[in-house]
Amino acid sequence: MSENLENNFKLLKEQGNAAFKSGDWLKALEYYTSALNLLKENGQDKAILYKNRAAAYNKLNEYQNAIRDCSASLDIVSNDPKALYRRCFAYEQLGKFEEAYVDAKQCLLSDPTNKEIQPVLSRLHPIVQEKLRENAQLSNKIESMFKYAFTIEESIERRITAIKNLLVLSKESSSGCVSLLKSGIINKVKVLLKNDKNAEVRLNALRIVGQLCKNDESCTKQVLVDLGVPWFVDALNTDNQNEINGVTYIIQAALNSLTGMANTLDSSPNEEKCKKNSKEIDAILTCLVCSVDRHSINKFARDSIIEILTRNIHYDNVNWAERLIDMKGLQRLLDVASELIETTYESKMDITEYSHTNVSVCLSRIYDNLTCDKSREKYVGAVDEFLRNKLLDPDIESKVRAVSTITVLLMGPIDVGNSIIARDGIIEMILAMATTDDKVQQKIACECIIAATTKKSKITPIVKQGTQILKNLYKSGEDEIRIRALVGLCKLGSSGGTDASIRPFSEGATLKLAEACRRFLIHPNTKADTKRWAVEGLSYLTLDAEVKEKLIEDQAALVAIMGLAKSEKTSAMYALVSIFVNLCNAYEKQEVIPEMIELAKFSKCHVPENHELDDVDFVNKRITLLCKYGVISVLVLLAKTESTNIKELISRLFNAICVIPELRGEVAKLGGIKTLLALAHSGTAKGKNQAAQAIARIGISINPEVSFKEQRCLESIRPLLGLLHPDCSALENFEAMMALCNMASVNERVRKKIVDSSGLQLIESYLFEEHQMLRRASVQCFTNLMISPEVIKHFEGENDKLKMLFLLCEDDDEDTALAAAGGVAIAVSNSVKCSKKLLTFNNWEESLKVILAHPNSGMQHRALVIAYSLIEADKEIAEKIFATEIMEILMALSIMKDDKSKDIKEMAEKCLKLAEDLKVIKKSEE
Length: 926
Fold this sequence. Notes:
Largest sheet: none
Oligomer: single chain
C-alpha cells in the first residue's frame, strides 16, 4: 500500500471509530465501507474493519449484514472472539438460537476470560435444549406422518390427512422446512409422483415442495440438488392443469428465493443474491429455454415455460434477456411462433390457442429489457436469420410459417415486426397467400393482415390491394376464414379512430360490419375461438359513435360479451375491455386547445371532428346501461389479470363510471373499492392515477366510514396524495383533496397516516393556489386535519402555517374564509402556543376585527371562538385584546336583539364574562 493510500485508510478508520463512539452509526458505516474499498488484499486490517462494520450494522438492527461481515472477518482470522460475539448477537436477534449458541461456545473457548459471553451462554443454553427437545418430538411426528402419507397400501383418507399435515408443517416455520428436508421428504415426493395416481395426494405433495422453496435460499438449493433441475420440466409435462400450476409455483418460488424477487410487478432482483446464486439461476434458465421447443413436452407445459420466462426476464441483475439471445433461446421461441395449429405432420410441435400470444409477450419483454443498441441489433439479426431460412426454403409450408412468425412479431415487439413488414415483397407475399385456395394460407394471411394494420403508414397499401381480397375471403364457406377476413375489414374500416370526418369505407359500412360480428357472437353454435375473433372485430368498430349507439341497445350482444368476459381465461380479454372503454369513451383523449384548432384551419391542416353521438349525454347513457348489464362485476373479475395495459384500461373504465355520482355507490357495493386500491398500487403510472381518481370520486360522494372502512381508508391515502403532484390535472388535485378532507374526519389513525405520508406539505402547497376551488379544498382539508394533535404540533412549530390560515380568513371566497376561520379556531382552542403565536402576526388586530364584524353569522361565531380561546389562553393576551377596539365589537355583539343572532350574542357575552373573571375588564354599574 502506498503511503498516501495508507494515510487515507488510517484517517477513514479513525473517523469511523469516532463516529461509532459518538453514536452516529450511519456515518461510521460510511467510513468503514470507504476504508474497506481501499484494501485489495485480505489481512488483519480488513478483518478488523469487517467486524467494526458488523458492530455498526448491529446497532442499526441490520443483523443479516452484520452476520455477513462477521463471517468475512472470521474467514480471515478464524475464531476471533469479537467477531464471534457480534455474530452471536446478530443470530440471537434473528431467532437463530442454535447458531448463536455455537458461536458463543467458540467465543468462550477462544477467550476464556470474556465475562460478557457467560450470561449469553446461560441465556441460550435452556433455549437450545428446548429446541433440541422440540426437534426430537418433531422428528417423531414427521416419521409418523411419512409412514401414512407415502405408503400406498394405507387408506386414502389417512394418506390425505397425513400429507395435509406435512403441508401445514412446511408453512408454519423455517425449522419445519429444515426438518422435512433432513428427513428426506424430497426423494419421497419424487417417488410418490412417479407411482401415485391420486390427484389430491399428488397436488399436496407439490405444494409442500413449493413451501420448501418459498423465501428460503438454502432450502431451495437443497431442493434443486435433491430433485435435479430437469425434474421440473418433466413434472410440468402433464395434462392436469392443477399440477402444472403447482410446478409453476415451485419454479417461481425457487427463482424468487435465489434472486430476491417477489410476486409483485415492481419487484426487482437483488444484485448480491443473483451473483451468489448465478450457477443455480443459469441452470434453471438453461433447462427452461432448451425445453421451449422440445417436441416431447405437451402444449400446456410449453405455455407454462414461456410464461415463466416472460415473468422473470428482468434487465436488472438477472439479465435473462441478453442470455436468451446468446443461448439461441430467441430462435426456439420463434420456432414456436412459426408453428401452425391447423397442420398435422410427424415433427409437429404441440401448441395451444394461447401459445402465439404468450410467445409475442415473451418476445416483446426480451426486446424491451435489452439495454443497448448492440443487443437490439443482435436480436434483430437473430430474427432476420430465422426468417431468411424459412423464406429461402422452396417448400410453401416454410413460407406460411414465416408469415405466422411475422404475425407474432407484430403482436409483440412491434418495432421489429414493422421493420420486417416494410421490406420489399413481404406485403405482396402475404396478399398473394390470401388469394390462394389453400385454407391454411388464407387463414394465416388474414391474421397477418390484421396484425399489420396496427401502424397507419402500413394501412394504405393494404386498403388499396387487400380490401377486395378480404371481401372475397369473407364469402368463404369456412367460418374460421370468414371471421378473420371480417376482423381484417373491421380493422381497416376503423382506421380513422374516433375522428368522425375520416371514413375509409362508404357510409354505413361500419354498421354492416358490426352486424356481421354480432351474428357470429350471439349464434349458439359459434365456436369459442370464432367468438373471440368477433369480439376483436367489435373492439375496432366501437371507435365509431354510430356502432356504439347500436351496440348499447343490443341486449343479446351485450349479454354475450359479458358472458365471454366472465370466462376463466380468454385471449380476447384486451379486446373485451377495449369494447367497454370505447363505449364509455374512457380512452386517452388529446387535449384540444382552441387556438391550435384555429391555426390548423388557417394552415389547411386536417382537424379531427367529434361525432354528435359522443356528446356527454350519450356517453353517460351508455355507461349507465353497461352498469345495468353488470359491467362493474365483470371489471372486478378481469382486474385480477397480470397485464399492466389491461389494468390501465380497467382503471380508466372505473374512473369513467365514477364520473356519474349515482353509480359510485354501485361501484362500492360490488367490491369496486378493493379492486381500485389494488389497481392504484400496481400497474402503469397513468393507470394508477385513473384508479386513484376513481377512489377520490367515491370518497367525495359516500361517507368513508360506511364505504371504505378504516383499513381501506388507510390504503387510499397514498394514491390520493399521489394526485396532488403538480403534473396531475387541476380536477385530479381538487377531487383528491376533497376525498382526503372527508377521510380526515374518520379517525385519528387516518389523520396520522396523512401526516406521516407528507400529506400536510402537499396540501399546504395549494393554500395560495390561484384556482379558487383548489384553494378552498386545501383549506377545508386542513381544517379537518386540525382535529389531530399531530397537526396542532406542526402549527406550533417555527413556521408560517398558522399565519397562512389566518390570512385566508379574509379570502374573497366565503367558503374558503369560513373553513380557514374554523381551522384557526380549532388551533387556538387546543393550543396555548398557537394562541400566543397568533398575536405575533402583523395586523392580527385588524384581521380579527374584520372577521368579528363579518356579515356571515357562521364567520362571526368562528371569530368569537378564536377571541374566547385567546382570552382564555393567557391574561396578557386578554389585556392586549381588550386594549383595542375589539372590546367595543364584543360589547356590540353582546347586545344584539335579533333572534337569529342568539348564538352570537351568547358567545360574545361569554367572552366578556371571561375577561371580567380574569379582572381584565370591570362591569360598569350602568
